[in-house]
Amino acid sequence: MPGIHKTIVLVFTFLFVIVIGRMIYHRKLREEYSWLWLLTCLFIIILTLFDSLLAALTNFFEIHVPTATLVLFGLFFLLAICFHFTLRLSDQTNNLKKLSQELTLLRGEYERSLTHSGENNKENPQKRIDGFE
Amino acid sequence: MSNCLFLSFSGQNMESSPESRIIVIIPAFNEASGIAQVVSNVRNRYPKNTVLVIDDCSTDDTAKQAQSAGAVVLRHSFNMGYGTTIQTGYKYAYRNGYDFLVQIDGDGQHEAEDIGRLLAALQQPNGPDIVIGSRFLGGGSYRPSTLRAMGIQFFRTTLKLFIKRKVSDPTSGFQAMNRKVLKVFIQDFFPVDYPDADVMVLLEKLNFRVEELPVRMYPNREGKSMHSNPFNVIYYVFKMIVSMVLTKVRKIEIY
C-alpha cells in the first residue's frame, strides 16, 4: 500500500474518531449509535497499520490493489450501518405513530374536560381542570 | 399547519343510553367543503349516536366545519395517512367503551341511510362481528374505471386464495364492527399503511364472522384518489401482497 494512501487513510480515520468522540461527549451522538462507527474506524486503522494483514486479505480475495480491499470493507460496514438505521427507523416509526395517536386522544379528552368544566362550574372553571377528575 | 393547533372545542353528545352505545367515525383529510354535510346527515338520522371526525391534520378548516356540524373532533398533529387516522378512531371508541362502531368516508360517497342496515345486521342475535358495506353487491350504481376494476378483481382473486371465501369489496371504507373486532384493530400490528385486503386475512385468521351488505356509493365529487400516481399503484400492489402473506404467517399476540 503506497505511503501516501496510508497517511491519508490514517489521518482521516483518526480525525473521524475524534469527531465521534466529541459528539458523544457533547451528547450529540448517542452511545447506542456510535459503536458501529467506532468499530469501522478501528477496523480501517488496524488494516492500514498492519499492511501484511491487508495484503493477505487482498491475496485471499484475489483483489489487485490493497486499497480496493479497504474500500470493500468500508462498503460492507456502511451497508451494516444503513441496515441498522433502517431497523431503528422502523421501530421509531411505530413509536411515533403510537405517541401521536396518544397525543390526539389526550388532547381531545383535555378539550372536552375544558368545555365540560365550563358548563358545570361557570364560576371557577379552572378548578376542575386542575383536578382532572 | 397552524390550524392543527387551535384549542377551541365544542364537542358534546356523550349521550349514554341503557342500550348499546354506538359511535360513527369519519376519517377526514382536507374535506372542509363536504364534511359538515356528511356529519349532519348522520346526526339527523341517528341523533343518539356519537359522531367522531378524526382530522388527519388538514390544511383547510375541516375540523372547525365538523365541530360546528356537531361532531366530536380529534386532530392529528401531523398528517399520518388513512390507516393511522382510522386507528385513532378505533382507539377512541375502544377507550370510551362503545359497543359498536361504524366507519364511513368523509367525502360524502356513502349514504348515511345505509348505516342503519349495517348496524341492524351487526346487532342481530348471533350476528357477524363485522359488516362490510360493499359497492359491488346488489344494485349498486358504482362503476369503477377499467384499470381500477382490474385492480379490484386482482385483489379479490388473491384474497380468495388466502381466505378461501369471496369478499366482493375488501377496500370498502364503509364498515361496522363490534367491540371484539375493535380490540384487535387497536393493536400495533393493525396494518396502518393500507388497511384493506390484509385486514380481511387478519379477520379470517382470528375466526371473526365477516358479512357483506350492499351499500350505495356516490362518485367522488373531486375525483381525487391515492391511486392516481403509477408508482403508488405498483407500491400498493407489492405492499398488499407482502402484507397479506405476512398477516397469514405471523403469530398474533393481542394484549
CA-based shape of chain B: globular
CATH names the topology of chain B as: Spore Coat Polysaccharide Biosynthesis Protein SpsA, Chain A
- Counting DSSP E segments of at least 2 residues, the number of strands of chain A comes to 0
CATH architecture title of chain B? Alpha-Beta Complex
Biggest interface, chains and residues, is: A-B, 14 and 23 residues
Mean pLDDT of chain B: 84
- Count of DSSP E strands of chain B? 7
- Classified in CATH, the superfamily of chain B is Spore Coat Polysaccharide Biosynthesis Protein SpsA, Chain A
Portion in helices of chain A: over 70%
Cα radius of gyration of chain B in angstroms: 17 Å
Radius of gyration of chain A using CA atoms only: 27 Å
Give me the strand/helix succession of chain A. Answer: HHHHH
**Low-confidence runs of chain A (pLDDT<50, min 5 residues)?**
122-133
Q: What is the CATH first-level class name of chain B?
A: Alpha Beta
Structure explained in plain terms:
The complex is a heterodimer of chains A (133) and B (255). Chain A is mostly helical. Chain A has one domain. Chain A is built from five helices and no strands. Chain A has helices at 3-25, 31-49, 51-60, 66-120, 125-131. In chain A, α1 runs antiparallel to α2 (31-49) and α3 (51-60) crosses α4 (66-120). Chain A is elongated and about 80 Å long. Chain B is of the alpha/beta class and 255 residues long. Chain B has a single domain (2-249), classed as Alpha-Beta Complex (Spore Coat Polysaccharide Biosynthesis Protein SpsA, Chain A), CATH 3.90.550. In chain B, 38% of the residues lie in helices and 14% in strands. Chain B contains eight helices and seven strands. Chain B has helices at residues 35-45, 62-68, 82-95, 114-123, 146-163, 179-185, 197-205, 230-249; strands at residues 22-28, 50-55, 72-75, 100-103, 130-134, 175-178, 210-214. A seven-stranded mixed beta sheet of chain B has the order 3-2-1-4-6-5-7, sandwiched between helices. In chain B, β2, α2 (62-68) and β3 form a beta-alpha-beta unit. Chain B is globular and about 45 Å long. Mean pLDDT of chain B is 84; it is low at 1-17.
